[in-house]
Structure formats: C-alpha cells, structure tokens
Amino acid sequence: MNIVVAIKHVPSTADELEINDEGVNLDFDEVDFTINEFDEQAIEQAVLVKEASGGEVTVIGVDVIEELDGVLHTALAKGADKAAKIVGDLEPPIDSHTQARWLADAIGGLTPDLVLTGVQAVDDLDGQIGPMLAAYLDLPYVGVVTGLSVSDGTATVHKEYAGGVMAEFEVNLPAVVGVQAAEKPPRYAPISKIRQMAKSADLEEYEADENVGDSGCEIRKMAKPVSAGHAEMLEGDAEEVAEKIIEILEERGLL
Amino acid sequence: MLTSIERVLFILMALALGGLAGAGFYGIYRIVRSGRSAPPRQNVLSNLIRAAIDVLLQKPMFRSRPVLSTFHAFIFFGFSFYFLVNVTDVLEGFIPGFELVYGGQNSSISLPAGLVNLFNLTADILSVLTLLGMIVFLVRRFLAHDRRLKFNDGVLLNPKVAKGWIGYDSLIVGVFILLHVGSRFLGQALRLAEYGQSDPFMPFASLTANLFTGLSEGGFTAAIHTTWWLALGLILLFLPYFVRSKHIHLMIAPINIGLGKQTPRGELDPATPPAAHTNGDEPADDEDPGARVLQDLSWPRMLDAYACIMCNRCNDVCPAHSQGLVLSPAAVEVNKRYLINEDFTALAFKGDRIDKPLTDVISPEAVWACTTCYACVRVCPVGNEPMADIVDIRRRMIIEGDELDSGIQTALESLAKNGNWFGKGSRGRSRWTKGLEFKVKDVTKEEAEYLWFVGDTASFDARVTPITQTVARVLKRAGVDFGILGRLERNSGNDVRRVGEEGLFEQLAEDNAAALGKGQFQKIVTTDPHSLNALRNEYGPFVESQWPVLHYTNLLLDLFQSGKLNVTHPLSHYRVTYHDPCYLGRYNGEFSAPRQLLELMGVELTEMPRNCENSYCCGAGGGQIWLGSTPAGERPAENRIREALATLAPPSNGDGNVIEPDDGQLLFVVTCPKDVIMYTDAVKTTGNEGKIEVRDMIQLVEEAIGGAMPEPEPETQSGGEA
C-alpha cells in the first residue's frame, strides 16, 4: 500500500500578518511559514492507515520559500517513510492550481494507492488541491473526510455533514481524499527524532515545471479588516444591566 | 553466663543467619549497580562522613514533623548505641563472670568503673526512650491511624502494598524493636534484682528490678538466659528479614545521603546515562533517553527504593498529593521496592532485568501531575529524589510517542515552532516595549551592562506585560544599562526539560546560546525564576562562557543599597506576606533579597508557615501551566491564598477572616511572572477579591520610589538619567 500525502507550506498566523506595499498580497518577507493545519491531519491519517493496514507513507510538498525541510523532517519523525519536495526558482505566492499541477506530476510517478491531502489551506481557502490532484491523476475524489480505513482495494471514508449527519462512503483505490480531521489528533513529534531525521533522512527532489499555467485568478486587493463598530459595555449592577438589556432588546423589536 | 550448647548454637546461628544477611546485602549492592550509570560522585569518603554526622545529629529529620522526629531521634540514638550494647551483651554471654552492673565491680575482668557507669546510664536511659518512641510509633500507626500514612484514593500501589504489607512490615519491625530492647533492659533489671540492690547509674532498670524480687535462683537464671536470647538471638533471626524489611533504611539512608546528587538542585541529570556518551554528546544507539522499565533508572534511583522508610513526608509537601491527585512521591519509592523484592533473587544473583514497565510504579496520570517543585526531594530525610524518576519516565514517554495531554502538546509544538508557548510569532516577543516612553536596547546590536532575559510569560501574557514595563521603567530610572535579545530570545527551556522534551530543550538552549553569543553584555538579569534556573544551572553545555545570572530582586536590592533608588514613600500601610517561587528559593537558594527589599520599603512582612525552603508550589511548574484540563480539588494556588489570609488575617471567632480597615491593605507579594497569573486567578476563584491583592515586587518598588518614571517629582529627576 503506497500512501502519498500532499502538503502545503503556508503563511503562519502566529504573528500579525502584514500586507505588501502594492496591497495585493501578504508581505512575504515579514511572515513565517508553517505546514497547513489540515495537511497535518492528513499526515496523521496516513500514518494511522499505515499502522492499521501496513504500507508506506510518502509526504510531498512544494518548497515555496526553501524552508520545507523542517516540515518534512517532522512528518518523518511522526511516522512517514519518505519525503520529497518540489524545488525550483520559486517565490511566494504560488497558487493552488500551479501547486496541484506540480504535485500531480510528481505523485503520478509514485504510483500511489491512496493520496491524502488537507481539505483546504489557510492561504487561499479554495480547497482545490485535492480535487485538482484527482483530476490530473484521473482518480476519484472524496473531500471533507474525518476518518478512513482501507481493505481489499477500497477505502471506507467518513464524512460529516451539517447538523451532525454522518455518511460513510466506499471508494475504489487508488483515490484522492481531502482530510478535514484525522481519527485521532495529530501526534507529537519529539524534537530529537526530528533532528535525527534532519541528519539522516534523504529528501527526494522534483524540479518544478515553470511552464504550467496559473489559476487565471488575480488578487485585486488585499487589506486588513476595518473594525466597523465597537462593543458597548453596559455599566452598573446586575439589576441595572438586566434592565438595559431588556431595553435594547425591546428597542430592536426582539421582545 | 551461657552454657556450652547455647554458645555453639549462637555461633552457628550467627554464621548461618549472618551469612544469609550478608548475601542479602550483596544482592542489594548488585541490584543497585544494575541501574544505569549516574554522573560520577566526587569526594565519596568525605561526603559519606558528612552524611554520617548529619544523620547522627538527626538533621535531615527535623526538616518537618518536629514531634515525631523527636521520637524517631529517641529510637535512632537508642538503636545506634545498641550496637555497642549488643557487643557487651555478647561478651557477658561468652566470658564467664563478665558483667557491667554496678560499674563492673563484680566482673571477672577489671573494668574502669567511671566509664562503665556512663555506659550503663546511657544504655538505661536510651532503652527507655527507644521503647517509648517505638510505642508512640505503633500507637500512631495502629491505634491513631495517622492519615499521613495513607495514600490518596487512586494512587497506584503495588498489590502487596494495597493489601497492607507496609503495615505488617511495620508491625514486625516494631515488635522486634520492643522485644530486642525490652528484653535487654529486663535482662539488666533481672541481674540487679538477683543482687538485690539498685544501681544509681541504672535508675530505670533498678526501678524495674523491684518486680522480680521474689524470684528463685533458678528462676533468675532461666529469666536471664531467656532475655539474653530474646535480645541477641532475635537480632540474628531478624538479620535476613532485615534485608527485605523497611527497617534497612537505617543502613541505606546514610549511604544514600552520602552518595546523593552533587550537581546543583536546578540541574537535572542527563537524559541518557553519562557512560552511554561515546564522544561527549552523541548517545550510543542502545541507550534510549529516560526510563521505561525499572533498570532504565540510574543506580541512585534504585538505592532510593531501599532508603525509603515510607514515612510519607514527601506526600505532606507535594502539591499534587495535597490536592487529592493520584501522585504520591512516596508510592514511587515504595512500589519500586516491592517490585524489586518480588524478583529479588533473580535480580540479585542471576543478573536478570525487570522488564516490568515503570507504569507498575507510577501511573501515567500521576507522572503528568508533578510540578517538579522539588519539595519532595528537599524534605526527604533519606535523600531520595522521586522527582528524578518522574522526569526520566516523562522523557521516555515523549521520545516513544506516548499520548500527551493536549495542552502540553500544543505548548510544545508552539515552542518548537515559535520559541514560545503562547502560539505567537517571535517578532511579537518585544512588542511589550512599544508601550514604553523610551527605546530598549537590543544587545545583539548595542552593548549593555545587563542582558535582561525576559522570558515567555513576561513578554507575552497581557496580565504580566504591564509589570514587565514597570520593571523596564524602574531600571531606566535607576540608570541601569540594560538591553534585551528581542526576537532572538527563545523560551529558556526550563519547563520543557521538566516535561521531558529533552530534544526541544536542547534546541531552545542552542538557539538562546547562539543569540547570547551575539550579545554584548556582562551579566544576565531576569524576573523569571524558571529562566534563571535554566540559564544558571543548565546552559553550561551550550554556552562558551557562563555569565552571572541575577534575579531582578537582587539587582533592585543592589540599586537601593548603592543609592541609585531611594525609598521616598515608605509602604507602612501594607501588611504583606511573601511567596518564595520554587525555582528561585528552593532551587537556587535566593531567599534574602526579596525580604530585604520589603524591609527597606517599610512594609510589615508576616511569613506564612510554609516559607523559604518549605515554600508551597503555586502549581504552575513542570509544564502544569500548559495542561489542557484542570484536575478536581483545591488547587495549590488556592490553598496558598488561604494560607496567606490565615497568616495576615487570622480568623478571630471562627466565622471567616475579619480584616480591620485600619490594619492596612493585605498584599500577597510575588517575584515570578507565573505567580502573578496563578495567584491573581486563585484570589478570584477563592472569592477573596477585595480582601487580599497580588502584587509583583516591582509594583511595590515603583510605589516606594514615588513612581517609576523620572518626571513626577522634580527632586528625583537626576535619577532618571540613563
């Protein structure tokens, strides 16, 4: 069983985000990058499947800012067997259409039985990597998955719908699955293991094909949200505050 | 005195049982040696001598429970002197006519009467004191059912311990001591009764002799022989049991103290045994960090198990046990001991290993309840370090990917990613300086006398950053030349290491060491005791030169003493108590600067019962502040706030704390950023808002010097030059 996890390196929201001078994207010199949190779920799910049914997990991503090694070493420390990165003379931002094309080119050569990826990423929130991978690889796709098991060439996946409705799908392998959440929270990777991986692991490299087209979309404007108003603090003791609340509710015709 | 048959019997018994006991001791030696190596012990002989002196003076005992320790001292002095008594008793048995009563005047061998009288008097008094002490202990355990000898519900106990074997063992040891000492005492009383006259140097025996005046000559002979055998034959019988009983603490405890930790309290032993390091820092492949099974522990931890007498003093001071949680430091040692004894022969003589996991010694839940406050280690009279076991167990759990508390995992991931546990980017680390009226130097760019290592909590926590700013203003006003590392600073790794994430600790220490290496400064100062501990005690392997690391209270005291800060507004309107942070006080011995500061500022300081070395943990250390869930029970910080209120405003008539408005504001003074959070919270959750207020020392200093910034008072303007 050959499991491939496609991941994305995205701007970290740990720090305040800065907009570039043109006002069309982030100021990428001022942001740190981190693994997309849904991809962390996908890696965990891949390792869980491997632990349950055997197989080999390969993690692959586009090395947008030449700092992906740490992410890949972490994935290896968590139980992935191989890691690869797509390299080139790259600069952020690289839209998900382009990333999906490059990933599909590399993954196609790996003859996967199962491709997992995060259902979406915080950078463009378009949720396109999974479906496009499936399209380029000509494989079925199931997204927003919260659990997955594999037997006899099929995967049983769980999806959660609004209102707490659960559905179970069977999908023939190979397939692409967009993971919303792994069955268990992602495990912790001890730093000494990550460092061991950094010393010993070989990361395979794929050259990015610069001649693929982009998404056709252009960001016209990016700005920080402007606060539209302020909360009104109700002063006074409990009685007075309660009275004011009732007043406001009546004023707006809610009572 | 003894018949020939008795002599032969005694010698045969001594050989057989002594041999058995000797084999037992050798077995213990082998078992202890089967543990992993530990940092080498220096000056072993002088340390053993020092330990022996401390034990002779019973100093380690009196760290707590003074009354019980006094009774223990009775038994200890009695039992120690009985080594000598037993020798003379054997001589009485084997040398015809040799006897010590009446100063030895009737003895077949001439003896110095003065010396013999002194000996008799000492033995007489100590016999009675030993019996008294032993009776008190037995009554305490079996009639009074002292709660402190029990464990919390849910504490993992070896099945035998759970069935009450500690009680059986205690009963056997207690009865043995009563019989051994009692019989010897009666034996001497019988001799006096046989002569029919009292000995002024044996007052208690003389008094007791009155009981036997009517006895026939044959009766005396039989009784003297019986008591001799009960005193000395019993000790031979007891010898092999001794090896397996808790009573062996009397031999192992002094050795354990003498061979105790020699590195600073604040420096954990390495995660992989020192011998496993092939070239200084690269561990050999076969040695995993930390401990999973018993013999993954280092040899001092094995010795601990034999030193433990199961007194539970550690439980008394453990914040987790006091909260009713399932952690008991005592149970760690007791369980280890019972686990070893289950396979004693195989371990000692066949060189087997115990592959039973340490989850038989302590439950994972208990492992994660430890605040690493060091109180258990500090209070232990026999030099045990149950906390070290716990850290080693955590280390292996982390490296082998055992399930982690979600809060701890989130904190560690943030620390690995961002260098802080607040989930904030490193750029935000010096954001607190933006609120200041002046620019704080970056020591990686400009030279400064002091590097201020700010730490995570003081840098990021919105409840603490105003205090951090006050520290900066006061230092500025005093003309202190200081700077920070800015975004290059990382969490010191102190608590990361105590959570068991050794690799992350190393990464953080290396990053900080690199940043420190770029800085131009002479000394390090910090408000954070946790950072202070790591920088002072654990950065040796990472930095090229070790800088002096000061706590801000030391620096402030220095500034007052050198006149750079002056008390213009004495704070006599406050009644305060002071809380010693674990990592400042107990770990690093810094008790006096905060107290001197308070005195200088004119506040009325009242000490809580638990102060200085015996301070009570706030419950935040060792990663506890990161826990995703709050365990039930009164939290340590809440307990502490109640202690503070009981100290500052004792309940006058039993219905709550009565505080007179004229008495002045009650303050709970802290000198640790984590304490600000923990205790401010605890004041709220205990419903004591308005009664007592938590203040950082710097807030008092700010008030005492009439404001932190130079402007307010014209005459102090010169103090604002920087």
Fold blueprint:
The complex is a heterodimer of chains A (255) and B (722).
Chain A: E1 2-7, E2 9-11, E3 33-35, H1 37-53, E4 56-62, H2 69-78, E5 82-87, H3 96-108, E6 114-118, H4 129-137, E7 141-151, E8 154-160, E9 166-172, E10 175-179, H5 191-200, E11 203-207, H6 238-251
Parallel strand pairs in A: 1-4, 1-6, 4-5, 5-11, 6-10, 7-10
Antiparallel strand pairs in A: 2-3, 7-8, 8-9
Chain B: H1 4-33, H2 44-56, H3 66-94, H4 113-143, H5 159-162, H6 165-195, H7 203-209, H8 217-244, H9 249-258, H10 299-307, H11 313-317, H12 319-322, H13 329-342, H14 344-349, H15 364-367, H16 375-379, H17 386-399, H18 406-418, E1 441-442, E2 450-452, H19 456-460, H20 465-477, E3 482-484, H21 494-499, H22 502-518, E4 523-526, H23 529-538, E5 549-551, H24 552-561, E6 574-578, H25 592-600, E7 604-605, H26 636-648, E8 665-670, H27 673-685, E9 692-696, H28 697-704
Parallel strand pairs in B: 1-3, 2-3, 2-4, 4-5, 6-7, 6-8, 8-9
Helix pairs in contact in B: 1-8, 1-10, 2-9, 3-4, 4-6, 6-7, 6-8, 9-10, 10-13, 20-28, 24-25, 26-27
How would you summarize this macromolecular structure in one to three sentences?
By secondary structure, chain A is of the alpha/beta class. Chain A contains six helices and eleven strands.
